[in-house]
Design goal:
The chain has ten helices and four strands. It is mainly alpha-helical. Helix 8 packs across helix 9. The protein is globular and about 50 Å long. The two termini are 20 Å apart.
């Protein structure tokens, strides 16, 4: 889709030009979520809200769409890291990863391992210094080194479903 199509769609859904969290959930038909899933949706929203003003404007929206569609894997991994690092301290601990994966399971509803198993497996594979925290460097290097882990992470945290909802202009659950 070209930018003017995205702009038309964005302005149709959000005439003010600024999408608040409530509108974000409405556009994507994300209501009645579990507290964990709701927390994840809020974290995604705040990650896309780059200037931290409480709204996603058109430029932030396009940047997010561009990342999902055209982003190189290292850009996506940096975005995933920022998303998982809920407290913004520059590291992902087990509690943060467990919380995010639990929320994603609540939204997607399909996985072949529990949130605890997933979290433990990630840390076992990529927490090189075994300090219970993943730095950005550990996260990117670990995921890029392990093809299976890369596939698992990109499938688990893929935002393509969100993008499909936006593209189609429908309001259906992801």
């Amino acid at each position: 889709m070209e930018i003017h199509h995205w702009y038309t769609k964005f302005m149709k859904e959000c005439p003010s030009g600024q999408l608040c969290l409530h509108e974000f959930k409405y556009v994507l038909d994300l209501h009645g979520l579990t507290p964990e899933a709701n927390s994840y949706v809020e974290q995604v929203f705040h990650t896309f809200d780059m200037n931290k003003d409480g709204f996603i404007d058109f430029l932030e929206f396009i940047a997010a769409i561009n990342l999902v569609i055209r982003g190189k894997i290292d850009q996506k991994l940096k975005w995933y890291f920022k998303l998982y690092d809920a407290d913004g301290n520059g590291c992902i601990d087990k509690k943060e990863l467990l919380s995010i994966f639990t929320a994603i399971q609540a939204i997607n509803g399909h996985t072949n391992m529990s949130a605890e198993e997933f979290t433990n497996m990630i840390f076992q594979k990529i927490d090189v210094n075994n300090d219970g925290e993943l730095t950005l460097e550990e996260f990117i290097n670990g995921v890029e080194r392990d093809k299976d882990l890369m596939e698992l992470i990109t499938k688990s945290f893929d935002l393509s479903n969100v993008l499909k909802v936006i593209q189609s202009g429908r309001r259906h659950s992801i």
